[in-house]
């Protein structure tokens, strides 16, 4: 079972996929605490950075142990008036996207690769590609809480569940993969890009060519990605078993 450490702040490269999302967006500001000066402050800062590196690298290795590929993600900006560490002004998905456009090919379960990435970017968030080992239902937090209560009452199967701050719940389910018959592929609003979450605040189904941000990632304004139900290696539930419950919960809020 994964433990829930938290932390974040890394380096973004020029291949950030946010640069392909077009112009516009809102400039967000992140307020920070007072900076400690002197040798003591430097020592404490170094300890925090090493701690974040260990936490992120350890979590990535845990995911790899489950067979879940990982790649580095953006993180909240520590300087300036931006909410995201990428170089995109007005990033539409601050601290919740991969650092490189090649994230899908880059994602790995190799512990040595993961250690190197988080040694180079100790504060990088963790990105988990979907549509490979699992799919993810992404719903408003209120709907997620309601759905979990119904799931418990009805004794339905449920897999790992993560919370993105107080905003969204992520339900991990078995993947439908890439069906041979494209007519069976769920597209429409159940399969949309993560950065469109504010435009379509209901449920979305992250499957192939999509991703989610995993614990212990940190989002702007001190929000954290945490486990409500951490993965324990058990088989993931059939997505169609949970689809009705989650749809009803989204309609009820």
Automatic annotation (TrEMBL):
Per the database record, which ranges form the DNA primase/polymerase bifunctional N-terminal domain? 60-242
Which intervals carry biased composition (Basic residues)?
Answer: 36-51
**What InterPro entries does this protein's entry cite?**
DNA_primase/pol_bifunc_N
A Pfam family cross-referenced in the UniProt record is Prim-Pol
State the residue spans of region: Disordered: 31-56
Name of the protein: Bifunctional DNA primase/polymerase
